[in-house]
């Protein structure tokens, strides 16, 4: 061996000694892929390597976001100290100063204007422990009824539909492992290939086994490319499309009479509604040929095991609740639930989109999916928390309605933890006006987000690498994410911050936890006997067991497949609901002749606050774009790759036009990961679903025009 080789070998060994291995879990979507992050240090230089781990539903796969998640966490823009705005500039202050500031501001406002003058706004990235504690913080710490969270914009339509139809809301009724058993799969308004990429192999496996996959989406995506049939539906017309399918199924006696009779109620009303449905009218409403609707219906109803998955494409509508109910009608009418390879799934979005909607950060909810309006539930939780039941506030209002109340001046201070509503709220112009009007805005985040810039006080929170806690994946499987490194600077965990604020508000006795596990153990009791029962789940079990909720005892495995015998409603039956041929609340007009729909791209996550700070992810898609059919573009004088304005009656955004001859000619698509003039939510529609208060993010009426008119010279 030459001496230089030995030298090299010695260095390699030294380098290896300077390697830190961190076991962690991706902070982004609901799949919750696990991984190892290797930090290799050579002198001052650090290199990172990411290796997937196998102990999760993604079976050792990671997508591009997971592979680069550490980049934002290690970004130089992480906020490391509390910061207060003084004369328009943020200045570092100590934690005690920050806490004193909150006490002074919130107490003064609440003394003067009552407890409800302060609002709380949470997010689906928070761990179960933190989501639970945020709810308790609002109700016990601040005694306000005003708490809601970004999941209102995400899971509320599917959640309320499942609660009403099945008596229980868990994203998937089956484990992902059962997907390859299905013979027909409908993917409605879900872009799994770009939004939950590591789950795609389950669908590929189903296809290899002979399954027929039907995608419903107004545009072509990596997901629709996997499908055997793509229904390029007019935006917002999915409820009508399902009525067409039900018409075909019922007329041809393809429904499952025995299942309907034994396990459901409400079928007669659905039958009555469907008897009035005219297939040619449905073809017209949906923009799909009648034969295609017939073929889809017959294919779906002719197999013995079928699955339906929906996501935000059909849910983020001003009638999202009804649309999901109709897809559930389809599942129930064909008896496709409660058996292997048959079921329904609302593909959950955020990392803890599932757990985050169960434990009380929602306006009408107490932990364990209990209701804040049910006297028994109120008593149970008030007892556990050690307060008189009458001190527990009542039901609050939804996220967008909170923005309206802030704009009206009724809510005067807001405490935001884990959301960037300036970007993610529909009709963002109103959100901006509202947030600017606040007397006191406190934002708890890792970065100075667009919303954070408007804050009076910023509190630095820990990232996924630092924060321990449980998260519940889209299957309802509870996972334990261990802390992989300690907090940088003065950063604290969200749960610590809540305890600290509660302390200065004089509520220390209710918030004395020393670690996340203490909070989880309280959550277990709080959820005991509730719909989302976590009582049987412990940190030590989570280390080596696969556990789903409901899990009522420590000897229980939890339920991977739901509703095999009975539904969770009082009479054990699922409820069908007749649904009319809804049309979106905002229609196109002469001034606004095109539909706009919004969504995501593979390399960015939500408001982009994290992924825009990840160089590898940001480089893949550096700016927003407007997908437009070339024919439509020609009609409006738009050249490929040039800047365009998109206007609605609410506002304007600007981005680069991108030709796409696979999108419907009457529809534009814009992702929502950017702020400022690229914020598509300046344009989107704020109308809410009457049942679940989901905004109609997925359809509004717009016009498009070139920023510089290149057709004139
Ligand atoms: N890469 C990436 N992955 C993510 C996220 C992310 O931001 N980026 N976010 C996570 C979160 S929180 C969520 S909620 C999920 C969202 O996951 P998805 O809901 O799958 O994502 P979207 O892109 O919002 O919408 C899905 C599809 O609906 C289509 N669509 C639009 N309008 C209609 C309509 O009227 N009818 C039908 N049938 N389809 C329509 C869109 O064209 C789009 O392809 O993804 C999670 N995963
Ligand atoms: N037009 C349009 N708008 C949409 C949608 C759409 O499809 N179209 N989708 C909607 C959906 S489904 C969703 S889920 C929302 C999401 O909308 P947002 O909630 O605004 O999205 P995020 O980017 O996740 O914002 C989270 C913020 O909290 C920070 N953060 C991340 N993790 C943590 C944590 O653990 N603790 C703390 N304290 N902070 C943290 C991040 O840095 C970021 O600034 O957007 C909605 N808005
Ligand atoms: S973004 Fe989702 S699919 Fe991708 S690595 Fe993270 S958890 Fe897995
Ligand atoms: Mo979401």
From TrEMBL:
User: Which top-rank group of organisms is this from?
Assistant: Bacteria
Q: Does the keyword Ribonucleoprotein apply?
A: no
Alphabetized UniProt keyword annotations: 4Fe-4S, Iron, Iron-sulfur, Metal-binding
Q: State its cofactor.
A: Mo-bis(molybdopterin guanine dinucleotide)
Molecular function (GO) terms listed? 4 iron, 4 sulfur cluster binding; metal ion binding; molybdopterin cofactor binding; NADH dehydrogenase activity
| Tagged with keyword RNA-binding | no
Transmembrane segment boundaries = none
Tell me the Pfam families matching this sequence.
Answer: Molybdop_Fe4S4, Molybdopterin, Molydop_binding
UniProt-listed InterPro entries: Asp_de-COase-like_dom_sf, MoPterin_dinucl-bd_dom, Mopterin_OxRdtase, Mopterin_OxRdtase_4Fe-4S_dom, Prok_molybdopt-oxidoreductase
Name a biological process GO annotation: respiratory electron transport chain
What are the residue boundaries of the 4Fe-4S Mo/W bis-MGD-type domain, all occurrences included?
Answer: 19-77
| Record's GO cellular component terms | membrane
Name recorded for this polypeptide: Assimilatory nitrate reductase catalytic subunit
């Amino acid at each position: 061996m030459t001496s230089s080789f030995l030298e090299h070998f010695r260095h390699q060994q030294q380098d290896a000694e300077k390697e830190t291995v961190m076991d962690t879990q991706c902070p982004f979507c609901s799949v919750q892929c696990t991984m190892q992050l290797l930090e290799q240090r050579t002198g001052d230089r650090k290199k990172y390597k990411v290796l997937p781990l196998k102990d999760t539903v993604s079976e050792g796969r990671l997508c591009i976001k997971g592979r680069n998640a550490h980049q934002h966490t290690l970004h130089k823009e992480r906020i490391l100290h509390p910061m207060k705005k003084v004369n328009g500039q943020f200045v570092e202050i100590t934690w005690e100063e920050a806490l004193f500031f909150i006490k002074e501001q919130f107490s003064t406002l609440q003394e003067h204007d009552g407890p409800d003058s302060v609002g709380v706004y949470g997010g689906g990235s928070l761990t179960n422990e933190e989501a639970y504690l945020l709810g308790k913080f609002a109700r016990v710490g601040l005694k306000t009824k005003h708490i809601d969270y970004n999941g209102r914009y995400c899971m509320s339509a599917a959640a309320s539909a499942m609660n009403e139809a099945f008596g229980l809301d868990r994203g998937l009724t089956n484990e992902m492992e059962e997907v390859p058993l299905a013979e027909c799969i409908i993917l409605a308004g879900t872009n799994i290939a770009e939004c939950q990429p590591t789950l795609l192999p389950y669908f590929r496996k189903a296809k290899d086994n002979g399954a027929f996959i039907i995608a419903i989406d107004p545009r072509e995506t990596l997901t629709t490319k996997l499908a055997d049939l793509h229904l390029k539906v007019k935006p917002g017309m999915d409820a009508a499309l399902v009525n067409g399918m039900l018409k075909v199924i019922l007329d041809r006696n393809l429904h499952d009479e025995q299942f309907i009779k034994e396990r459901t109620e409400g079928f007669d009303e659905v039958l009555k509604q469907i008897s009035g449905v005219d297939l040619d009218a449905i073809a017209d409403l949906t923009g799909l040929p009648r034969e295609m609707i017939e073929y889809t219906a017959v294919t779906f109803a002719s197999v013995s095991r079928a699955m339906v998955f929906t996501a935000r494409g059909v849910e983020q509508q001003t009638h999202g609740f009804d649309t999901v109910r109709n897809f559930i009608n389809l599942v129930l009418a064909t008896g496709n639930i409660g058996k292997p390879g048959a079921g329904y799934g609302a593909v959950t979005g955020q990392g803890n989109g599932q757990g985050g909607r169960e434990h009380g950060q929602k306006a009408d909810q107490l932990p364990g999916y209990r209701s804040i309006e049910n006297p028994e539930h109120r008593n149970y939780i008030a007892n556990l928390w050690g307060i008189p039941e009458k001190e527990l506030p009542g039901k609050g209002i939804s996220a967008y309605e909170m923005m309206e109340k802030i704009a009206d001046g009724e809510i005067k201070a807001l405490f935001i933890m884990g959301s960037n509503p300036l970007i993610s709220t529909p009709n963002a112009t109103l959100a901006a006006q509202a947030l600017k009007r606040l007397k006191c805005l406190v934002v708890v985040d890792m970065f100075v987000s667009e919303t954070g810039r408007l804050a009076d006080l910023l509190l630095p929170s820990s990232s996924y690498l630092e924060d321990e806690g449980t998260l519940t994946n889209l299957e309802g499987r509870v996972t334990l994410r261990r802390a992989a490194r300690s907090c940088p600077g003065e950063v604290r965990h969200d749960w610590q911050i809540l305890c600290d604020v509660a302390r200065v508000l004089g509520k220390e006795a209710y918030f004395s936890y020393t670690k996340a596990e203490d909070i989880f153990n309280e959550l277990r009791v709080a959820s005991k006997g509730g719909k989302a029962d976590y009582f049987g789940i412990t940190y030590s079990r989570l280390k080596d067991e696969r556990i789903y909720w409901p899990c009522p005892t420590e000897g229980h495995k939890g339920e991977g497949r739901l509703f095999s015998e009975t539904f969770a409603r009082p009479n054990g039956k699922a409820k069908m609901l007749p649904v009319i041929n809804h049309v979106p609340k905002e229609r196109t007009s002469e001034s606004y002749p095109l539909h706009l729909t919004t969504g995501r791209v593979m390399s960015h996550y939500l408001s982009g606050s994290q992924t825009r700070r990840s160089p590898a992810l940001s480089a893949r898609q550096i700016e927003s774009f407007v997908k437009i059919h070339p024919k439509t573009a020609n009609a409006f004088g738009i050249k490929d790759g040039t800047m365009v304005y998109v206007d609605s009656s609410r506002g304007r955004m600007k981005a680069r036009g991108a030709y796409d001859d696979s999108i419907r000619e009457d529809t534009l698509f814009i992702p929502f990961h950017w702020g400022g003039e690229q914020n598509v939510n300046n344009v989107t529609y704020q109308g809410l679903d009457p049942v679940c208060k989901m905004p109609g993010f997925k359809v509004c009426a717009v016009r498009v025009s070139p920023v510089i008119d290149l057709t004139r010279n």
